[in-house]
Amino acid sequence: MFKPLSAALLTLPVAIAAQATTLDANQAQARDIFSHLIAFKTEIGQGQVPVMVKYLADQFRAAGFPESDIHIIPHGETAAMVVRYRGNGTGGKPIALMAHMDVVTAKPEDWQRDPFKLTEENGYFFGRGTEDIKSGVTVLAANFIRLKKEGFVPTRDLIIVYTGDEETTQDTMQDLVEHHRDLVDADFALNTDAGGGELSESGKPLVYGLQTAEKAYASFELTTRNPGGHSSLPRPDNAIYELADALKKVQGYSFPVMWNDTTLASFKALGATTQGKLGEAMRAFAQDPHNQAAADVLAAEPSEVGKTRTTCVATLLRGGHADNALPQSATATINCRIFPGVAVATVQKTVQDLVGPKVEVNLVGKAISSDASPLRPDVLAAVTKAVHTIRPGVTITPEQESGATDGLYFRAAGIPTYGVSGLFMKNSDAFAHGLNERIPVKSFYDDLAYWHVLLTTVAGPSSAK
Prior knowledge:
Layout: H1 5-20, H2 25-39, H3 49-62, E1 70-75, E2 78-85, E3 95-100, E4 119-121, E5 124-126, H4 134-150, E6 158-163, H5 171-179, H6 181-184, E7 188-191, E8 196-199, E9 205-214, E10 216-225, E11 229-230, H7 239-252, H8 261-271, H9 276-287, H10 292-299, H11 302-305, E12 311-319, E13 325-326, E14 329-338, H12 344-355, E15 360-364, H13 377-390, E16 396-401, H14 407-412, E17 417-419, E18 424-426, E19 438-440, H15 441-458
Parallel strand pairs: 3-6, 3-7, 7-17, 8-18, 9-16
Antiparallel strand pairs: 1-2, 2-6, 4-5, 5-19, 8-9, 10-14, 10-15, 11-13, 12-14
């Protein structure tokens, strides 16, 4: 029914107040923390991660965490932060809990809303980092604060590990592992930046993926060199042509098909709900990973090829120095996502053998590889309990991620790591790293509840050894 403007304005505060009262105290506090975190422009070059660290440290201090258990580790323009929740020691070694504070650069002029302001609209939270991964930073902090308020005493120490450059160099995580191992050493780690649940386009929960493995990230530069000369006097050998030939060899090469317990279990579970030829291939590959026809179908699907082999793809190109001169050099960057357990040096040698001795193949920056983490029964049981608290009956399956997170460094250091985000989302809602990043409001509050169950399960009295 139409209302006069004055009447509508009079009812507006009431409506807002009514909406606010639907949040309990823990949810309201989490939303407030989330709003503050989204406002920090923790992009590379902004120097805002240390400012965000100071805000978080203040929240932990106010909740009663002693200064001696709040560790801030500066690192250039960024920083890492480690917060320890002391347990009674009856449950064994600590458990690490992971999230990163930095975000991918967002250009406000391209967004429909301010990317650095938490906007709640049409059932979604919008803002840079809502999905990747300030929601994870928030639910860990909010649950530490809540558990401290409730007087919860874990059976072992819980350690939040916040890093400051996961989206770029990952130096803060490497520094923690190499130089501050005493602060982060753990029996295992639970990572907010991986795993999670999938919703159908109608909103029905389909499956929950527990990430036990991720591929290594490595980039190589392929360079050809030539004496060059005047463009009016072309010579048979040409740096750009030779580089192009090398890239075609990379394009035409398929790394060997590989699998592990995680990928086979994942394909079995996904195959049960995936329709058509792709679902058939998933089921066939899970039953027999030597089935080349099934592997070929999976290789033709961009979302699945990374689960069955190492991949390398050209991403950058430069060459020559003048339009009237023969090129003296040409360089292309290929980015490789390396199957767990395969050494970076092995992939580099494969590429070198492929392109031949005239092409230089050099690693760009650093790269690290790690094996898959074993699927621990205690982790699986705790995650299953937590998931079923918010999404009853959903199938839990291990999964391997084709991307990479800070979890690589923990796994490489001998700390099994599990991606266990509590977010459930539709594939069509995934805009991490992109424009108008968002998460469902319901999923945020479900994630908050999920982590409360997960933490009190893995470090509660019944879990003591």
